[in-house]
Specification:
single chain, 12 helices, five-stranded mixed β-barrel, Jelly Rolls, 3 domains, alpha/beta, Spore Coat Polysaccharide Biosynthesis Protein SpsA, Chain A
Length: 444
């Protein structure tokens, strides 16, 4: 059997995981917990690096290409990157990948995988077991046996056995985010699955279904590829052409309307980590039912999720709470109200708080930048450059920048002039001037 091409979708922001997830630094690129450096994206890529799978394809917003490249470099993993200049949900991204692969292999198998889910169990084995169904022309959707009547998930109802194939079953219907009464009845009936967002199909099959069901989007995405820009790092789709594509998920454009769609049950523990309570639900807990992440001390506290980024967090006498501490924001809520974090996000958007968009400390391709202090007319930042890296400081007509070297050494290039940098050196970058810093041993 042929190798499966993992398509890792990196869209979405994950606002209900604020303050970890921000619009400029969404949850898929954040650490899963405070006890390791592994991000959701890292875990997704690594899960499919094994026999039976080709190098991954990553569909991501153009603004996050550098982040994807850095995290792929962390894993020493080659990948094909498809960059989207505007947000158009998953449908156009999946079609673009199918069209790109079909140029050389129309029957290429594509497995669509969200980058921000947690999976425990043999997901790859389940996917490879369904190859026969996909190779025969079916669109395989993977479902998870529901553990409780979740109202935030879509459900797929089992339609019975599939002729000649044991690895998948027919689909009777789709039910999107039902009320708790219907979700409960679906679980009692025992024939419905949570829609995991993971799917498997041939490139040419998906293309033909788009041509049949949404020719406008097919034409738009085809043109976005033809008019796109291929660089050494990524294929950048053309924004003007892509604008005409439907801003919809693949499920609502194709999967829910195609007679080719079948379901394959997954024998894994799965969560889309849509809110903090979901992380508590799927993570390993201590003897008190707590999930403690980072530098945390807990006394007389139970059934809680407590996470610290870089400072000690102490919690006493609490039950069923969520505490998430970052450099510049602290969230405290109860587990049963964790979904209401989206209301905080709306409030932050209304009052235009920067904590909605960015963290005080951010990883960049050249190192790390940390906001130390800010006020009217000024901002103080600490920048740490990796050895051998280059930091371009582009022209800025409004800001006057002063820089001080606190450790390490490097080179400063302004125009045709290059100077050596040492600890204690100060220099300025006047408005409208561009500068490049080359780092020797790690410097700040």
């Amino acid at each position: 059997m042929q190798n499966v091409h993992p398509l890792i979708l990196c869209g979405g922001i994950g606002t209900r995981l604020w303050p970890l997830s921000r619009t400029e630094h969404p949850k898929q690129f954040q650490r899963i917990d405070g006890n390791s450096e592994t991000t959701f994206f890292h875990a997704t890529v690594e899960r499919h690096r094994m026999p039976g799978f080709a190098d991954p394809i990553v569909a991501v917003s153009s603004s996050h290409v550098a982040t994807v490249m850095r995290q792929l470099n962390d894993l020493n993993c080659p990948a094909r990157i498809i960059a989207e200049p505007i947000s158009r949900n998953t449908g156009p991204a999946v079609l673009a990948t199918a069209l790109d692969l079909a140029e050389t292999d129309p029957a290429a198998l594509i497995c669509v995988i969200p980058s921000d889910h947690i999976v425990k169990g043999d997901l790859t084995g389940n996917v490879l077991a369904a190859r026969a169904a996909a190779e025969s022309g079916h669109i395989v959707l993977f479902g998870v046996t529901p553990e409780y009547p979740e109202t935030g998930y879509g459900y797929i109802v089992d339609g019975g056995p599939l002729d000649m194939l044991d690895c998948a079953r027919k689909v009777a219907s789709f039910i999107e985010k039902p009320p708790v009464e219907i979700a409960t009845s679906l679980i009692k009936a025992g024939n419905a699955y949570w829609a995991s967002g993971i799917s498997l199909f041939r490139a040419d099959v998906l293309i033909s279904e788009f041509q049949r069901l949404d020719p406008t989007t097919y034409e738009a995405v085809s043109n976005a590829i033809k008019l796109g820009l291929q660089t050494e790092h990524a294929l950048y789709l053309n924004a003007e052409a892509l604008f005409s594509a439907a801003n919809l998920p693949t499920e609502s454009i194709v999967f829910e309307h195609s007679p080719r769609t079948v379901i394959a049950p997954l024998q894994v523990a799965w969560s889309d980590v849509g809110a903090w309570n979901a992380l508590h639900h799927i993570a390993e807990k201590d003897e008190d039912g707590n999930v403690l992440s980072g530098d945390v001390i807990s006394i007389d506290t139970c059934n809680s999720y407590i996470r610290s980024t870089n400072k000690l967090v102490a919690v006493i006498g609490m039950q069923d709470v969520v505490v998430v501490d970052t450099d510049d924001a602290l969230l405290i809520t109860t587990r049963d109200q964790a979904q209401q974090v989206k209301q905080i996000v709306k409030k932050l958007e209304t009052i235009k708080r920067r904590e909605l968009a960015e963290h005080a400390r951010n990883q960049m391709t050249w190192g790390e930048i940390r906001r130390v202090q800010s006020g009217p007319g000024y901002e103080l930042r600490m920048m740490t450059l990796r050895a051998g890296s280059m930091l371009p400081m582009l022209e800025d007509l409004t800001s006057h920048r002063m820089l001080t070297v606190t450790s390490g050494s490097g080179l400063l290039k302004t125009g045709v002039v290059t100077r050596v940098l040492h600890v204690g050196d100060n220099f300025e970058v006047p408005p409208g001037e561009a500068t490049i810093i080359y780092c020797g041993p790690e410097a700040e």
